[in-house]
Amino acid sequence: MDDDRSIGAGRQVKGSIKEAIGKITGDRSAEAEGAAEKAAGKVQSALGKAKQAARDAKGN
Asked: Is the pLDDT of residue 60 over 70?
């Protein structure tokens, strides 16, 4: 697995947790930060998938 994919997955989890804590505590700032981090993780995971697809296409 590509590093970007694993790091992105970790950021998604961390963002989801932060977002949930923000919702529970009513802290809109933490909720927004969590949502942003989760979105950044999704982007990073997608980047890793694209890199892997490019490597696979180049290898075939």
From this structure: no
